Amino acid sequence: MKVLLITLYLLTSQLISAQSGNSTIDEQQRFQNILSTSTKTLVINTTSYPYATIREFKRELRGWNEKVLSADIDTVQKTFTIVHNKLMHPKEMEDFWKKYNIKSSSIISYN
């Protein structure tokens, strides 16, 4: 009888721990989904950048396809627009700005 109770206890505790592990995974997946669908848009004034540099911006950002949804050059308005999801860490964007010497005065908007 004691063996049966101990066995039932162990099975129940394993079942409960498996369910809590699954809920943690579900929560992580929901969080990742929220981050990947929430977006931010950065608009840069490109009047002080050579066109070759702007093409380099776009080429590099193309490699970030998991995080960057679009990178568009508007030659008429002289802007470069980057739409990225929130999987991109703010430090990554800051490093990008530093790499290409993008000054805060060149940023039209970032929201």
Walk me through the topology.
Layout: H1 2-37, E1 39-45, H2 51-62, E2 68-74, E3 79-85, H3 90-99, E4 107-110
* SS field, number of helical segments: 3
Structural class: alpha+beta
The residue fraction in helices comes out at 40-55%
Strand order of the largest sheet: 2-3-1-4
- What percent of residues are in strands? 15-25%
**What do the pLDDT scores average to?**
82
Helix and strand succession? HEHEEHE
User: Which regions are unreliable across 5 or more consecutive residues at pLDDT < 50?
Assistant: none
Report, as a whole number of angstroms, the end-to-end distance: 65 Å
- What is the C-alpha radius of gyration, as a whole number of Å? 24 Å
Number of strands: 4
Please explain how this structure is put together:
Helix content is 52%, strand content 23%. The protein has three helices and four strands; from the N terminus they run H-E-H-E-E-H-E. The protein has a four-stranded antiparallel beta sheet with strand order 2-3-1-4.
Short description:
With 111 residues, this protein is α+β, with helices and mostly antiparallel strands. It has helices at 2-37, 51-62, 90-99; strands spanning 39-45, 68-74, 79-85, 107-110.
Task: Offer a few descriptive terms.
about 110 residues; about 50% helix; alpha+beta; 4 strands; four-stranded antiparallel β-sheet; rod-shaped
